Write the C-alpha coordinates for this entry.
Amino acid sequence: NEDAARRVAGEIGGMAVRCNVAQEMDVRRLITIAEAQAGPISVFVGNAGLPSNGGYEVPNDEWDRTLGVNLMQHVYVARHLFPLWQQRDGDKHFVVTASAAGLLTQVGSLPYSVSKHAAVALAEWYAITYAEYGIRVSCLCPQAVETGMMPARSGGGVAGTDGVLAPQKVAQDVVEAM
Protein backbone atom coordinates (compact mmCIF):
# COMPACT_ATOMS: atom_id res chain seq x y z
CA ASN A 1 0.00 0.00 0.00
CA GLU A 2 2.08 2.86 -1.34
CA ASP A 3 -0.13 5.64 0.06
CA ALA A 4 0.00 4.20 3.58
CA ALA A 5 3.77 3.76 3.29
CA ARG A 6 4.20 7.41 2.32
CA ARG A 7 1.96 8.52 5.19
CA VAL A 8 3.92 6.49 7.75
CA ALA A 9 7.26 7.58 6.27
CA GLY A 10 6.16 11.19 6.68
CA GLU A 11 5.11 10.58 10.29
CA ILE A 12 8.40 8.97 11.31
CA GLY A 13 10.82 10.88 9.09
CA GLY A 14 11.55 7.86 6.93
CA MET A 15 11.25 7.12 3.25
CA ALA A 16 8.76 5.10 1.25
CA VAL A 17 9.91 2.88 -1.60
CA ARG A 18 7.44 0.97 -3.72
CA CYS A 19 8.37 -2.71 -3.56
CA ASN A 20 6.59 -5.95 -4.36
CA VAL A 21 8.47 -8.23 -1.95
CA ALA A 22 7.47 -11.27 -4.01
CA GLN A 23 9.61 -9.92 -6.88
CA GLU A 24 13.35 -10.35 -6.43
CA MET A 25 14.33 -7.35 -8.54
CA ASP A 26 12.04 -5.09 -6.50
CA VAL A 27 13.72 -6.29 -3.30
CA ARG A 28 17.18 -5.71 -4.78
CA ARG A 29 16.10 -2.22 -5.85
CA LEU A 30 14.75 -1.51 -2.35
CA ILE A 31 18.07 -2.46 -0.73
CA THR A 32 20.03 -0.39 -3.26
CA ILE A 33 17.84 2.70 -2.75
CA ALA A 34 17.83 2.37 1.04
CA GLU A 35 21.61 2.11 1.22
CA ALA A 36 22.11 4.99 -1.24
CA GLN A 37 19.74 7.33 0.62
CA ALA A 38 20.18 6.28 4.25
CA GLY A 39 23.56 4.55 4.40
CA PRO A 40 24.44 0.96 5.21
CA ILE A 41 21.54 -1.14 6.44
CA SER A 42 22.20 -2.61 9.88
CA VAL A 43 18.70 -3.91 10.64
CA PHE A 44 16.20 -5.33 8.17
CA VAL A 45 12.71 -6.37 9.25
CA GLY A 46 10.82 -8.49 6.73
CA ASN A 47 7.25 -7.80 7.78
CA ALA A 48 5.06 -8.21 4.69
CA GLY A 49 2.36 -10.82 5.00
CA LEU A 50 -0.45 -12.20 2.88
CA PRO A 51 -3.37 -14.22 4.23
CA SER A 52 -4.72 -17.20 2.36
CA ASN A 53 -7.65 -19.44 3.17
CA GLY A 54 -8.50 -22.94 2.09
CA GLY A 55 -6.93 -26.36 1.84
CA TYR A 56 -6.05 -28.72 -0.99
CA GLU A 57 -8.37 -26.86 -3.38
CA VAL A 58 -6.38 -23.60 -3.30
CA PRO A 59 -5.26 -22.82 -6.87
CA ASN A 60 -1.58 -22.68 -7.78
CA ASP A 61 -1.56 -18.92 -8.42
CA GLU A 62 -2.71 -18.29 -4.84
CA TRP A 63 -0.01 -20.64 -3.53
CA ASP A 64 2.54 -18.71 -5.60
CA ARG A 65 1.37 -15.34 -4.24
CA THR A 66 1.30 -16.57 -0.65
CA LEU A 67 4.73 -18.20 -0.80
CA GLY A 68 6.14 -15.20 -2.66
CA VAL A 69 5.12 -12.73 0.03
CA ASN A 70 5.34 -14.88 3.16
CA LEU A 71 8.52 -16.80 2.36
CA MET A 72 10.43 -15.69 -0.72
CA GLN A 73 10.71 -12.06 0.45
CA HIS A 74 13.14 -13.34 3.12
CA VAL A 75 15.11 -15.36 0.57
CA TYR A 76 15.43 -12.33 -1.71
CA VAL A 77 16.50 -9.99 1.09
CA ALA A 78 19.16 -12.41 2.29
CA ARG A 79 20.38 -13.04 -1.24
CA HIS A 80 21.03 -9.33 -1.79
CA LEU A 81 21.80 -8.05 1.73
CA PHE A 82 23.83 -10.86 3.34
CA PRO A 83 26.75 -10.57 0.87
CA LEU A 84 27.03 -6.88 1.82
CA TRP A 85 26.83 -7.74 5.51
CA GLN A 86 29.45 -10.47 5.23
CA GLN A 87 31.95 -7.78 4.21
CA ARG A 88 31.02 -5.33 7.01
CA ASP A 89 31.71 -4.97 10.69
CA GLY A 90 29.12 -3.68 13.11
CA ASP A 91 25.52 -4.54 13.79
CA LYS A 92 23.72 -6.77 11.30
CA HIS A 93 20.30 -8.01 12.31
CA PHE A 94 17.67 -9.66 10.12
CA VAL A 95 14.18 -10.03 11.57
CA VAL A 96 11.87 -12.50 9.85
CA THR A 97 8.22 -11.96 10.69
CA ALA A 98 6.50 -15.32 10.59
CA SER A 99 3.46 -16.06 12.74
CA ALA A 100 2.24 -18.35 15.47
CA ALA A 101 0.87 -20.24 12.45
CA GLY A 102 4.52 -21.09 11.71
CA LEU A 103 4.81 -22.88 15.04
CA LEU A 104 1.39 -24.48 15.26
CA THR A 105 -1.09 -24.23 12.40
CA GLN A 106 -3.74 -21.88 11.10
CA VAL A 107 -6.91 -23.91 10.83
CA GLY A 108 -8.57 -23.40 7.45
CA SER A 109 -5.51 -21.77 5.89
CA LEU A 110 -3.14 -24.33 4.41
CA PRO A 111 -1.01 -22.01 2.21
CA TYR A 112 -0.60 -19.47 5.02
CA SER A 113 0.40 -22.12 7.56
CA VAL A 114 2.86 -23.81 5.22
CA SER A 115 4.44 -20.50 4.19
CA LYS A 116 4.86 -19.42 7.81
CA HIS A 117 6.32 -22.80 8.86
CA ALA A 118 8.81 -22.41 6.01
CA ALA A 119 9.69 -18.86 7.15
CA VAL A 120 10.47 -20.16 10.65
CA ALA A 121 12.71 -22.89 9.22
CA LEU A 122 14.43 -20.38 6.94
CA ALA A 123 15.13 -18.01 9.84
CA GLU A 124 16.60 -20.85 11.88
CA TRP A 125 18.80 -21.92 8.97
CA TYR A 126 20.01 -18.36 8.39
CA ALA A 127 20.74 -17.89 12.11
CA ILE A 128 22.90 -21.01 12.26
CA THR A 129 24.60 -20.57 8.90
CA TYR A 130 25.46 -16.87 9.05
CA ALA A 131 26.28 -16.46 12.75
CA GLU A 132 29.98 -16.74 11.93
CA TYR A 133 29.64 -13.46 9.99
CA GLY A 134 28.07 -11.66 12.93
CA ILE A 135 24.66 -11.69 11.25
CA ARG A 136 21.99 -12.09 13.90
CA VAL A 137 18.63 -13.48 12.84
CA SER A 138 15.42 -13.33 14.85
CA CYS A 139 12.06 -14.82 13.99
CA LEU A 140 8.94 -13.07 15.22
CA CYS A 141 5.92 -15.36 15.67
CA PRO A 142 3.01 -13.33 17.07
CA GLN A 143 -0.41 -14.91 17.37
CA ALA A 144 -2.55 -12.13 15.93
CA VAL A 145 -1.72 -8.48 15.29
CA GLU A 146 -4.22 -5.73 14.54
CA THR A 147 -3.38 -5.00 10.91
CA GLY A 148 -5.24 -4.99 7.63
CA MET A 149 -4.84 -8.77 7.68
CA MET A 150 -6.31 -9.14 11.18
CA PRO A 151 -8.66 -6.36 12.24
CA ALA A 152 -9.17 -5.91 15.97
CA ARG A 153 -11.95 -7.98 17.37
CA SER A 154 -13.11 -9.05 20.77
CA GLY A 155 -13.51 -12.75 21.29
CA GLY A 156 -14.34 -15.40 18.75
CA GLY A 157 -11.98 -17.65 16.89
CA VAL A 158 -8.62 -18.96 18.02
CA ALA A 159 -6.95 -15.53 17.85
CA GLY A 160 -9.66 -14.10 20.07
CA THR A 161 -8.67 -16.46 22.89
CA ASP A 162 -5.65 -14.40 23.93
CA GLY A 163 -6.65 -11.18 22.21
CA VAL A 164 -5.29 -9.34 19.23
CA LEU A 165 -1.99 -7.50 19.72
CA ALA A 166 -1.49 -3.83 18.91
CA PRO A 167 1.20 -3.35 16.25
CA GLN A 168 2.93 -0.75 18.44
CA LYS A 169 3.31 -3.35 21.22
CA VAL A 170 4.80 -5.91 18.85
CA ALA A 171 7.20 -3.33 17.40
CA GLN A 172 8.31 -2.27 20.88
CA ASP A 173 8.89 -5.91 21.86
CA VAL A 174 11.06 -6.42 18.76
CA VAL A 175 13.16 -3.33 19.53
CA GLU A 176 13.61 -4.41 23.16
CA ALA A 177 14.56 -7.96 22.10
CA MET A 178 17.26 -6.67 19.76
Notes: Residues 39-141 form a domain with the Rossmann fold fold (CATH 3.40.50.720). Helices lie at 2-12, 24-38, 60-86, 110-130, 159-162, 167-177.
